[in-house]
C-alpha cells in the first residue's frame, strides 16, 4: 500500500451516509496525512421500497459495501453501527469504532410539539419496530391515544410527512440529524428512560480486510475504546437474544457519572479514587406496546471486548428468562 496513494472509502449514497463518511474521511486524512476518496455504492436497502422489517433489516445496507471490500474496489467501508449484523465475517476486521454521537431518539413534530404535548390520536411515523414498541408502551402507560405509522425514506422524506401535515410527528436518530447539520429541527429529545435506542445507535463502524495489518493500524487511530466497549455490550445483548436489527430491541450501555470518594478537597490522590461503572439497559416488546421486558445491570467498565460481550449475554439471559423471546415476533438465524 503506497504511503501517498488515496485511500478508497466505500459509502452508501444517501445524504446521511455521505455526511458521516465525509467526516471519517477528514479524520482519517488528518491522522494519516493521506488523501481519502469516497466511493459511492448503492445497497439493496437504498433501492428497495419495502419496509425494513420485511426485507430482513439486518445487513440490507451493509452487504454491497462488504462485497466491494471483498472485490478490492475499496480499502475501507463506513457503516452506521446499528445496521451491522452482530456476526463479524472472519475476512473483515471491525478496525475502528469512533467516538459516539448522541445515541438518543428525537422527535420532529408539527408546531414544536413534544411527546407529552401530542393530542389524542396523533399519528407518529417510524420505520422501526423498536420505536413503535416503546412509543406505544409509553402511550399506554400515560393514557395517550397515539397511532404509529410505518414509514421509509431518507431524512428529507420523513420530515416531509410532518411538514405536509400527513403526520403529526416522526421519530429519528439524533446522531443522523446532527451529522446532517439539522439538529435545530428537533422538537423533543426523547429520554432514554422513555425510549432506549437501537444497539449501537449514534456510533459508526469502520471495516477493512482482516489481513491488511497496516490499514488496521492506521484506522485504529480513530477508535474510541469507551464507545467500543459500550456498543460491544449492546450488540452482544442483541446477538444473545438472537434478534436481527429489525427486531423491537433497544439497548444502551452508558458510563455512570464518576463517584468521588469522600476526600479532602485538593487531596493529591483524589484522581485515583474515581470509581467508574457501566450500566447496560435492554428492552424488548411487542410493537403494540402491550407487553415489554425491560431490565438493566451495572458493573465495572469492561476492560476488554470479552468482558463487554459477557455483560451483554448475561443481561440477555435474564431477559429471556422473563419471556423476551416471545415478544420479538421474528427470531433471526
Structure notes:
The protein has 333 residues and is an alpha/beta fold. Helices cover 29% and strands 22% of the residues. It contains 9 helices and 13 strands. The chain has helices at 15-32, 44-47, 63-70, 129-141, 155-163, 174-179, 213-219, 225-240, 305-321, and strands at residues 7-12, 36-41, 76-80, 92-96, 105-109, 123-126, 147-150, 169-173, 188-189, 204-209, 249-255, 277-285, 292-300. It has a 5-stranded mixed beta sheet with strand order 2-1-3-10-4, sandwiched between helices. Strands 7-6-8-5-9 form a 5-stranded mixed beta sheet, with helices on both faces. A 3-stranded antiparallel beta sheet has the order 11-12-13. Helix 4 (129-141) links the parallel strand 6 and strand 7 (147-150). Helix 8 packs parallel to helix 9. The longest helix has 18 residues, at 15-32. The radius of gyration is 20 Å and the shape is globular. The two termini are 37 Å apart. Mean pLDDT is 88; it is low at 51-58 and 260-273.
Amino acid at each position: 500500500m503506497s504511503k501517498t496513494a488515496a485511500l478508497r472509502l466505500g459509502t452508501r449514497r444517501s445524504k446521511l451516509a455521505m455526511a458521516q463518511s465525509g467526516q471519517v474521511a477528514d479524520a482519517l486524512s488528518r491522522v494519516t496525512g493521506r488523501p481519502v476518496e469516497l466511493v459511492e455504492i448503492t445497497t439493496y436497502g437504498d433501492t428497495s421500497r419495502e419496509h425494513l422489517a420485511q426485507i430482513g433489516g439486518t445487513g440490507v445496507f451493509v452487504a454491497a459495501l462488504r462485497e466491494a471490500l471483498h472485490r478490492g474496489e475499496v480499502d475501507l467501508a463506513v457503516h452506521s453501527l446499528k445496521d451491522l449484523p452482530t456476526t463479524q465475517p472472519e475476512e473483515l476486521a471491525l478496525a475502528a469504532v469512533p467516538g459516539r454521537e448522541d445515541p438518543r431518539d428525537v422527535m420532529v413534530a408539527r408546531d414544536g410539539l413534544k411527546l407529552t404535548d401530542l393530542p389524542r390520536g396523533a399519528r407518529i411515523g417510524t420505520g422501526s419496530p423498536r420505536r413503535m414498541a416503546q412509543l406505544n408502551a409509553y402511550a399506554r402507560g400515560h393514557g395517550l391515544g397515539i397511532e404509529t405509522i410505518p414509514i421509509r425514506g431518507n431524512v428529507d422524506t420523513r420530515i416531509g410527512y410532518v411538514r405536509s401535515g400527513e403526520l403529526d410527528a416522526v421519530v429519528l436518530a439524533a446522531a443522523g440529524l446532527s451529522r446532517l447539520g439539522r439538529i435545530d429541527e428537533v422538537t423533543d429529545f426523547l429520554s432514554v428512560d422513555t425510549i432506549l435506542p437501537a444497539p449501537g445507535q449514534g456510533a459508526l463502524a469502520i471495516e477493512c480486510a482482516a489481513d491488511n495489518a497496516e490499514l488496521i493500524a492506521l484506522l485504529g487511530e480513530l477508535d474510541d475504546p469507551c464507545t467500543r466497549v459500550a456498543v460491544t455490550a449492546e450488540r452482544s445483548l442483541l446477538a444473545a437474544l438472537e434478534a436481527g436489527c429489525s427486531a423491537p430491541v433497544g439497548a444502551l450501555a452508558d458510563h455512570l457519572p464518576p463517584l468521588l470518594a469522600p476526600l479532602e478537597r485538593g487531596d493529591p490522590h483524589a484522581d485515583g479514587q474515581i470509581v467508574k461503572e457501566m450500566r447496560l439497559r435492554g428492552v424488548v416488546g411487542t410493537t403494540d406496546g402491550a407487553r415489554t421486558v425491560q431490565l438493566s445491570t451495572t458493573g465495572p467498565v469492561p476492560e476488554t471486548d470479552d468482558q463487554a460481550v459477557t455483560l451483554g449475554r448475561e443481561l440477555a439471559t435474564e431477559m429471556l428468562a422473563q419471556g423476551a423471546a416471545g415478544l420479538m415476533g421474528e427470531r433471526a438465524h
